[in-house]
Specification:
203 residues, mainly alpha, 8 helices, Ferritin, two-stranded parallel sheet
Length: 203
């Protein structure tokens, strides 16, 4: 398995076992929300490309990221079709919207914070794929393990871009703020299962 120790060291907490069990009890919903997450990730990358056209490095990395996320989306869609999982409309969980709450509104702080949030989301996705993989059937296990390297690179790309924008400014304080918020979201109860939800309400 691809080594994601740098991911687990970066995040402020591990995914709780109760979430893993919740996911295994909701495999169809897991796939559906996973597809939505890939689509949203591609959309976020494209939005950054449109907003920050003066940064060639950012546009190049986001273009590659969007292509990879859309490829993953297609792969999840294929798995859903094979398993007769319908693609229905579902509401997103609180995770991304709550994580973006502290994003500052002035530039370049807004871009820096947005990139930090992107890094954390990619890191958590990578960590959850690794947590789930050992418990899944061979096809899904192989697929989720195949995603680890690209998700880890996405996390690294987002973080490197944030540091590039910040220049000599330290990002430690902002990263710590978002990681603490993310930890709270991951460890606190949720009443609806999603790929990035917290622990089940009854846990």
């Amino acid at each position: 398995m691809y080594d994601i120790s740098h991911i687990t060291e970066f995040l402020a907490c591990e995914t709780p076992g109760s979430w893993v069990q919740w996911a295994l009890q909701n495999e169809a919903l897991l796939l559906l929300d996973h597809a939505n997450c890939e689509k949203k990730a591609a959309s976020t990358a494209l939005a950054l490309m449109y907003q920050y056209v003066d940064d060639f490095d950012l546009m190049h990395k986001m273009s590659r990221l969007a292509r990879e996320e859309l490829r993953h989306y297609e792969q999840v869609m294929t798995l859903m079709e094979q398993r007769s999982v319908p693609y229905t409309q579902i509401t997103p969980c609180r995770y991304a919207s709550k994580l973006r709450k502290p994003v500052r509104t002035h530039e370049p702080a807004r871009l820096i914070d947005t990139l930090i949030v992107g890094a954390i989301i990619e890191a958590r996705s990578c960590e959850r794929f690794a947590k789930l993989a050992p418990h899944l059937d061979d096809e899904l296990k192989h697929f989720y393990l195949s995603l680890l390297k690209s998700e880890a690179r996405h996390y690294q790309d987002y973080l490197a871009l944030a540091q590039k924008v910040a220049g000599e400014e330290s990002l430690d304080e902002r990263i710590a703020l978002f990681l603490e918020l993310e930890k709270n979201l991951i460890q606190s109860p949720d009443d609806t299962f999603r790929f990035h939800s917290g622990v089940p309400l009854a846990a």
